[in-house]
Design goal:
By secondary structure, this protein is an alpha/beta fold. It is about 15% helix and about 25% strand. It is built from 2 helices and 18 strands. The strands form 4 sheets. It has a 5-stranded parallel beta sheet with strand order 5-8-11-14-17, with helices on one face. The longest helix is centred in the first third of the chain and has 13 residues.
Length: about 170
């Protein structure tokens, strides 16, 4: 029985649960959240994650803040916990792209040829990443952000909605 435990039951946590449910690969999806311990589906506080960790459980830290998300990913990985890659069924990810642990690709996003998306990145709704770009650890491409070809987006950057990063603006 494969389980997903989501840290954070806010808006992004709900989004992660929705994507995971649509993927159909989890038998159980639940939350840990420090501020909503009595809410439906919330099993406890985030710092109780080790009591839920087992071979059948993956844990995803659903925090929009890049620093917080990456700190949690590092903490989970230090304990040998699997942090999943989640790709919405309507997103396009090239077979030549590489997605690292903790990457989420949301609806209608495009990760094109030869792209590398490193640990803990959020590729949000309708974001586009053109060929041969590298998105470094902990980045968030907001809804509709565009990264044109051959860019290296710096660690923990946020590219806001509607922003267009021109070809080689951040050279490889």
């Amino acid at each position: 029985m494969k389980k997903l435990l989501i840290l954070g039951a806010g808006g992004y946590g709900k989004t992660i649960a929705d994507v995971a449910q649509q993927l159909g690969c989890y038998d159980k999806i639940a939350f840990l959240d420090d501020g909503k311990t009595n809410a439906p589906g919330v099993l406890g506080r985030c710092d109780e994650f080790l009591s839920f960790a087992d071979e059948a459980t993956e844990i995803y830290p659903a925090f929009g803040n890049n620093e917080t998300r990456m700190a949690w990913i590092n903490r989970l990985m230090e304990h040998g916990i699997r942090v999943p890659v989640l790709v919405h069924p309507s997103a396009y990810v090239s077979p030549t792209a590489t997605l690292f642990s903790g990457v989420t690709v949301l609806p209608k996003a495009v990760v094109n040829t030869g792209v590398m998306v490193k640990t803990g990145c959020i590729i949000n709704i309708g974001a586009l990443i053109d060929h041969d770009s590298v998105i470094e650890d902990g980045c968030h491409l907001a809804p509709g952000a565009i990264v044109k070809a051959e860019n290296r987006i710096p660690v923990k950057s946020k590219i806001d909605s509607g922003t267009v990063i021109e070809n080689r603006q951040y050279p490889l």
